[in-house]
Specification:
heterodimer; A: alpha+beta; Alpha-Beta Plaits; six-stranded mixed β-sheet; globular; binds iron/sulfur cluster
Chain lengths: 221, 308
């Protein structure tokens, strides 16, 4: 089911004018910020399809900036997000690109801080609902509305069992899990979503497992 | 959720002797593990935002962010006061006016609730708030109506589309009209089956509607389609309550919406390349807007009342 509950139909409460081009964009920006692990100093945003064609009129640029500032979809500050971002020292650039293979409302966010760079591609699938479709070159597909853990790790036996036993030890229910590999013997990215909010300690515990390179998490709703 | 079609939904409601609204609330609580109180509070907050948007658009009409639209809700509201009244009569005219109002608030980057999208955010508030005034209902009743509308939208969204980019305007305005029609039928005492017929009747009237917003903005024709949508929802609910049935079962009509949306050329799916957006005037407006916007590229929205 693409749409999971009543509030994915009635809602979100939001600043107009477009649920896909404004609210969905806020949520993609916000998810990227959380998974990046804080406010980036630089964000390069490449817009595709209908996002690219109509972003100015829909305030998609304001919405993405607002998401990167960690605002919710109904925050009145969205209207001023570009200057607020500037005032906080976040540098934003917007480009349009073509790629008929991506969802018509997609954006690629390349986020940088002093020593790090991550890229996230998100798609706004309607009614303000959004999905992540690519992270640092890994093809993924998960909704940004659920508590999510990203584990970057070496691709070897036994890793998944180690993650799940730690998660189950915290009495969390795994609602979605997907392993993504770039090549057979290389890196892997495991995406795990839970029904309940993630505790603060869980990412640290998973990080301590041998072979885990990095853990990112978000609890947006 | 224990339903994926409207037929299942109506059957479950009948078995459990509950309304669609109550059933949806129970399912939401069961699925998310949240208390019913929390869920109802969230929905009540949304209803408050809707009522506030109705009021705000009429009391403080704003030009849209682009300057292309604004003030139509107030225009119709004023026209309603003439001695001969309107063709629609006061109640339907009020639904029309309120729907326009919320849609205009949306276009000026005001606060609304997506139902199911922002493009179609005027229809449910237009129908609900005007009915609340007419029948003097308490908010709780309308909030249960929103759960009913949500259950209908949930089935449409998962079996077809709710975004113009994927399925054309039938998916946005069409879905919202159907949700409002079904909910209104239930709020007026119709059975779950009658509510489902209202959905089918309403959907049939918008099959094939293309998404062709001028300049890609949620303004022309979106705002007036919200007004029309509110009135159509009333008509569909009236027919269903009178016993009119959707001979083609509603779940099959939803399938037709899906089929039509998939077959719809790209130019009619929110790309602003065809339809009204592609007319000489549509193109001219977009061009003026674009050169106008270029000067303000990546700028904030000016403060309230300010014109770009
Ligand atoms: S024309 Fe397109 S943007 Fe406008 S309301 Fe319909 S689906 Fe939404």
């Amino acid at each position: 089911m693409r749409f999971k509950d009543v509030f994915s139909i009635i809602g979100p409460g939001m600043i107009g004018p477009s649920s896909s081009h404004t609210a969905g964009a806020v949520r993609i920006g916000r998810a990227a910020r959380h998974l990046f692990g804080g406010m980036p100093l630089q964000a390069e945003l490449t817009l595709y399809g209908s996002f690219a064609e109509t972003y100015e009129g829909h305030g998609t640029d304001l919405a993405l900036a607002a998401g990167l500032l960690d605002y919710a979809t109904d925050d009145e500050r969205i209207r001023n997000a570009l200057s607020l971002a500037k005032a906080l020292g976040m540098e934003l650039t917007f480009n349009a690109a073509r790629d008929p293979t991506v969802h018509p409302n997609s954006v690629l966010l390349t986020l940088r801080s002093e020593n790090r760079e991550d890229s996230f591609m998100g798609a706004s699938i309607g009614g303000g609902n959004a999905e992540m479709t690519k992270i640092n070159g890994f093809d993924v597909k998960f909704s940004v509305h659920n508590p999510t853990l990203l584990v970057f790790h070496a691709d070897r036996l036994g890793m998944l069992a180690a993650f799940t036993s730690l998660i189950e030890a915290e009495w969390l229910n795994i609602s979605y899990m997907d392993v993504n590999r770039k090549s057979r013997a290389g890196d892997a990215l495991t995406v795990i979503q839970t029904d309940e909010r993630l505790s603060g300690k869980l990412p640290d515990r998973i990080r301590a497992i041998e072979g885990v390179r990095r853990v990112a998490s978000m609890n947006l709703s | 959720m224990r339903f994926s079609t409207l037929r299942q939904l109506a059957e479950r409601c009948r078995e459990e002797q509950v309304t669609i609204g109550q059933f949806m609330l129970n399912e939401q609580a069961f699925e998310t593990g949240e208390s019913k109180t929390t869920i109802v509070t969230q929905m009540t907050d949304y209803y408050t935002v809707m009522k506030e948007a109705v009021r705000r658009g009429l009391e403080h009409p704003q030009p849209s962010r682009s300057g292309l639209t604004g003030g139509d809700a107030a225009r119709v509201r004023q026209y309603m006061d003439r001695p001969d009244g309107t063709l629609l009569g006061n109640d339907a005219s009020r639904a029309l006016t309120y729907a326009l109002s919320v849609s205009e608030v949306n276009a000026s980057m005001g606060k609304i609730v997506a139902t199911p999208t922002a493009g179609s955010c005027g229809i449910i508030p237009g129908v609900f708030v005007s009915a609340q005034q007419r029948y003097c209902w308490a908010d709780d009743r309308l909030v249960m109506g929103l759960f009913c509308a949500g259950a209908i939208g949930y089935v449409i969204a998962n079996n077809s589309f709710i975004s113009g980019a994927e399925g054309g305007c039938q998916a946005e305005i069409g879905s919202a009209v159907a949700m409002a029609a079904g909910a209104m039928t239930e709020l007026l005492g119709g059975t779950p089956e009658q509510a489902v017929h209202a959905v089918g009747l309403a959907l049939k009237n918008s099959l094939g509607l293309i998404c062709d917003p001028v300049g890609g903005l949620v303004e022309i024709p979106c705002i007036v389609r919200n007004g029309f949508g509110a009135v159509t929802a009333l008509a569909a609910a009236d027919m269903a309550l009178a016993g009119v049935r959707s001979v083609i079962p509603t779940d099959e009509v939803i399938e037709v919406m899906h089929e039509t949306g998939r077959a719809m050329p790209d130019i009619y799916r929110e790309t602003a390349k065809g339809g009204l957006a592609g007319t000489p005037t549509g193109r001219k407006l977009a061009k003026e807007l674009f050169s106008h916007e270029n000067g303000h590229q990546n700028a904030d929205v000016p403060p309230e009342g300010g014109q770009r």
